[in-house]
């Protein structure tokens, strides 16, 4: 027998608040664009995600995945066997991906990890780049700013100054160095002259 994996159904997961996960059962997504491969993929997953890994998962949610066992010798005689299970897939997501500001301190937010993920996973904010112009990039942008708490999904960034900042919110499994998934946020700081704080 050969095994064929596929995604049968996707029920998006909508965060009602930091502690409660709510299913949006009214908006179902066509699973035909999601494929399953054998290598690791870019999501945090409560289950072992069966024997394959999803590629192209569009949203966080409950994924019904399964496989068929077609009989390659007598396909017209023996119908294929199949098995399904539901796994919770969580993708890194920022609330606002593009921020424009004139102040040095900005509060940013990402979707919090579901309760089921928090024992084995954590999130972290980090700096990717800081551009002063299309051709000028800061060498050590991570040393120029501070986060009140880089592991909180909502935190304040302090010390921003003129330029375009690219940051990311990443999901990690405990004990691993490479993120399972990341979401990018861009902050455009227009001036260094205004001292007020702004929450976005």
What would you note in describing this structure?
The structure is a single chain. A five-stranded antiparallel β-sheet has the order 2-1-6-7-4, with no helix packed on it. It is built from no helices and 16 strands. The termini are far apart. The chain has strands spanning 4-17, 20-23, 35-37, 44-45, 53-55, 61-69, 81-90, 98-101, 106-109, 121-133, 136-137, 146-147, 154-158, 163-173, 181-189, 198-199. With 200 residues, it is mainly beta. The protein is 0% helix and 48% strand. A hairpin with a 7-residue loop joins β14 and β15 (181-189).
Which segments are poorly predicted (pLDDT under 50) over 5 or more consecutive residues?
15-26, 38-52, 194-200
CA-based shape: elongated
* DSSP E strands, number: 16
Q: Give the spatial strand order of the biggest sheet.
A: 2-1-6-7-4
Strand content: over 45%
Would you tell me the overall average pLDDT? 76
Q: In angstroms, what separates the terminal alpha carbons?
A: 55 Å
Order of helices and strands: EEEEEEEEEEEEEEEE
What is the SS-derived class?
A: mainly beta
Largest β-sheet summary: 5 strands, antiparallel
Rg from alpha-carbon coordinates: 21 Å
Short description:
The protein is an all-beta fold. The protein is built from no helices and 16 strands. 20% of the residues are buried.
Q: Which properties best describe this structure?
A:
48% strand; 200 residues; elongated; disordered C terminus; 16 strands; 5-stranded mixed sheet; mainly beta; 5-stranded antiparallel sheet
């Amino acid at each position: 027998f050969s095994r064929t994996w596929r995604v049968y159904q996707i029920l998006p997961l909508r965060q009602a608040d930091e502690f409660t996960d709510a299913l949006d059962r009214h908006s179902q997504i066509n699973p035909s664009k999601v494929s399953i491969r054998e290598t690791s993929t870019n999501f945090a997953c409560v289950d072992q995600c069966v024997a394959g890994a999803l590629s192209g998962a569009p949203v966080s949610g409950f994924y019904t995945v399964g496989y068929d066992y077609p009989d390659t010798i007598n396909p017209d005689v023996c119908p294929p066997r199949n098995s399904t299970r539901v796994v919770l897939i969580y993708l890194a997501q920022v609330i606002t991906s593009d921020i424009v500001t004139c102040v040095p301190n900005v509060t940013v937010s990402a979707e919090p990890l579901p309760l089921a993920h928090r024992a084995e996973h954590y999130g972290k904010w980090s700096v990717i780049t800081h551009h002063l112009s299309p051709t000028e990039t800061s060498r050590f942008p991570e040393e120029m700013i501070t986060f009140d708490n880089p592991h909180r999904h909502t935190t304040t960034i302090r010390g921003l100054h003129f330029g375009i900042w690219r940051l990311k919110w990443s999901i990690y499994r405990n004990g691993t160095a490479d993120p399972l998934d990341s979401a990018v946020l861009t902050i455009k700081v227009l001036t260094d002259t205004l001292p007020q704080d702004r929450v976005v």
